[in-house]
Amino acid sequence: MSQLDHIRNFSIIAHIDHGKSTLSDRFIQVCGGLSDREMQAQVLDSMDIERERGITIKAQSVTLDYKARNGEVYQLNFIDTPGHVDFSYEVSRSLSACEGALLVVDAAQGVEAQSVANCYTAIEQGLEVRPVLNKMDLPQADPDKVAQEIEEIIGLDATDAVRCSAKSGLNIEDVLEDLVANIPPPEGDPDAPLQALIIDSWFDSYLGVVSLIRVKNGSIKKGDKIRMKSTGRDHLVDGIGIFTPKMTPTGELGTGEVGYMVGSIKDIHGAPVGDTIVSAKFPDVDALPGFQKVKPQVYAGLFPVSSDDFEAFRDALEKLSLNDASLFYEPENSDALGFGFRCGFLGMLHMEIIQERLEREYDLDLITTAPTVIYEVVNKKGEVLMVDNPSKLPDPGVIDEMREPIAECNILVPQEYLGNVITLCIEKRGVQVDMQYTGTQVALKYEIPLAEVVMDFFDRLKSASRGFASLDYNFTRFQEAPLVRLDVLVNGERVDALAVIMHRDNVRRRGASLTEKMKELIPRQMFDVAIQAAMGNQVVARTTVKALRKNVTAKCYGGDVSRKKKLLQKQKEGKKRMKQIGSVEIPQSAFLAVLKVDD
Amino acid sequence: MLHLPPLSLYIHVPWCIRKCPYCDFNSHQAEGDLPEREYIRALLADLDEDLRWVQGREIHSIFFGGGTPSLLSARAYEALFKGLKQRLTFAKDIEITLEANPGTFEAEKFAAYRKLGINRLSIGIQSFQPEHLQKLGRVHDREQALRAIKLAKKAGFDNFNLDLMHGLPGQTVEQALDDLQQALAFKPTHLSWYQLTIEPNTEFYKRPPQLPEDDALWDIQEAGLALLAEHGFDHYEISAHCQPGKASKHNLNYWQFGDYLGIGAGAHGKITLADANVIYRTQKTRLPRDYLNPDKTFLTGKQTIEPEDIGLECLMNGLRLREGMLVDDFEYRTGLTLEAVAEPVAKAQQLGLLNVDKRIYPTEKGQQYLNELLALFLTE
């Protein structure tokens, strides 16, 4: 256990590819947290998906012992944060366990919008933010200009920001020295009764629920009896320790420290994220301010391909939602797809990741319907309904008014791409609110319908600016708009799971491109398949998938029987992944066709 | 109750002058002189081990496949036939087919083949268009193809098949029809007209050629079938067409779930043991050098067809035939009653893909959508 003044708890705020993971790997290396053999690139991103995509989704922590130049050893608790626009909620959670944060900025690219937003969150939460200019090894690094930009956009003094390169290892110790000198140690009373915050919880099939905790006051030891403030339930502490980044038992966590706790909690709701842990002996301790529950921005139906998987699917969602409070789900029944869940996500990436985790970690085959935002519908009686599912939209006849969510978008873009970005914003029905020239970048503020933002805006923005523009957005309000539902009919049958809500002006164009796209995705069958897009009873577009004229059958004599059989089997497997709508087989991809439609 | 079906013999010759990029058969480029004598000796030793599976039956047909069986000399075949006749009883009307590739044709050799009792040739023409022959990596050119057919006829082969492919890279309907016309001019008794498909483990699989679009393929197919029908050809199997009564006995036996011994490198066999109530599939060692190595066994695989697969395996081939097979044959040769596949049969009938009377056979629609039809017989 370290003295309070020798502990530093910090996060790193950085844009996705500004070098956070490389920098944290360097920290671990400098502090000897892992042997060279164990030093796998980007150790902290532990989920397969995280490593594959090179992004951080969940908070992780690592405790490091740093021997400073003054000869003292400091305990550094680094709490990793996600960098993608979808996961700002996770960021503020990680920050609440820290006294300071490093703002890591690519010295060649400059500040990016998400970092600005996260930086404000950190400052609001009272954290000391230390700018760090990374990627000094790049020839195009321009630290003076970027330092100026940090001052202009964020208002942080960056004149003496450490200039380093995580890649080459330049000045890494200077970053740690700066951190130790300027980020304040935690405050707290080691002799007070226990008060600890659950930063994150996840389910481990061997250990049960594992929680990442920050001790605010007192201490927590193996064998202690603790109480969860929210449930009032008592648990015995089975294991306690730190991540080095390996899970390392220490038997105790003291005031100001960050580490894990295993408490023989089998019920996954037993240790909710944001909850306060107190001692069962001294339970009359205030609950710490928890986390504000974030609202999902995007909703989609998720359905198991095989109805036998429904129970397994429910269990999986329950387990995932334990450490992903932003994941919302409720049962949904679709005529076309059967029983499933309507799920709410923070954004498209979040949705993709959840779907991938469900398929990979829980071995489920799922069909996802086209994502939608939530709409406010006022009916003739003056009642306001929230609609997160196009097929649940009331009959147009009883609707008085429809309102769509509007997002305030903060975009930072280098001047040369300004024109492209403005064109994109207009195309997405955006309204300019503000424009500021700063350093080398322009700060744009637009109000854009959320539906347009969550679909492909981020990707389009990136390609319109060669990857340089950055985006942060927040929901601001609902606003009246002429919205309609576009239905898709397959051989005359309305497919509820294919309906989408959109702006009236887009109906014809999108209807046409949607039916075309569906035509590409639905394989030819033994009969013609008619695909229609309709608004109410009015068909706005139609195409036909012509009947397959014949199967291609390779020649086959005595020898190739088993291969031929495998081929048939593979074909059948492929069919299993399709959904039968009437007599038509529709592949999973068709349900997401609306996303692939180019305007 | 299983009955012993007719027995055929398949003999594999695993060498080619060069491997074609679409070919997924067990063929190997011949290096220097072929070890003919050793191979014939090995074939007979291989056969000796299989004799236990003959169970008193006479041999209904023999097929020399490859590779390029016409690479072997008449002397080699003479020795082989001598050995075969010592070990097996040939049926009186036995069909003996040899696969031959243009480029290996010599008048004397083929006349000698005919004298040995080989009474049917299957000639791998594939196309008469120089550009397509080249794309298919064939070793022969158009002139050699034409010469080969003439020579075969002259050598006394009045019963012969021509192998032709369609759906070739860049092929037009006119070119496909022209290939057929040129073949028809020779009045073959049998035409195998099959679509080029890209199979795993081939050169084309690694570097796929640009094939005609689906609609173009169908136009080719329709025009070709019409032309063949006009010339009196019976479209009796997916890609097999024959003059009346000239269907390939040997292939019919495959398709109707008959038995066959397979000897030679990589040869497959199928054997019924009625007493043990079991059906085996067998494989022989693939590489010629292993096959010729006395320290290695010929037989490398022998699997029992699982009871739940027998129905599918039988129909997978049987329903390739326009006339399918006799329900009696289905029952005798699988040991099942038709009742065992009642569910998929009913479903197939309901979809209009299958007919059952004395025979079980695909409807016209079932022939068109054979894969959909067969998929119904797959068990989970």
Describe this structure in words.
- The complex is a heterodimer of chains A (599) and B (380).
- With 599 residues, chain A is α+β, with helices and mostly antiparallel strands.
- Chain A is built from 14 helices and 33 strands.
- In chain A, helix 3 packs parallel to helix 4 (113-124).
- Chain A starts with 6 loop residues before the first strand and ends with a helix.
- Chain B starts with 6 loop residues before the first strand and ends in a 5-residue tail after the last helix.
- Chain B contains 15 helices and 17 strands.
- In chain B, strands 9-10-8-7-6-5-4-1-11 form a 9-stranded mixed β-sheet, sandwiched between helices. Chain B has a 3-stranded antiparallel β-sheet with strand order 12-13-14, with no helix packed on it. Chain B has a 3-stranded antiparallel β-sheet with strand order 15-17-16.
- Chain B has helices at residues 36-50, 74-87, 107-115, 130-135, 142-154, 173-184, 203-206, 214-230, 249-255, 288-291, 307-318, 327-334, 342-350, 364-368, 370-375, and strands at residues 7-13, 15-16, 28-29, 59-66, 90-100, 120-126, 160-166, 190-195, 234-237, 240-242, 259-263, 268-273, 278-284, 299-304, 325-326, 354-356, 359-362.
- In chain B, helix 6 packs parallel to helix 8.
- Chain B has 380 residues and is α/β, with parallel strands linked by helices.
- At the A-B interface, helix 12 of A face strand 8, helix 8, strand 12, helix 11 and helix 14 of B.
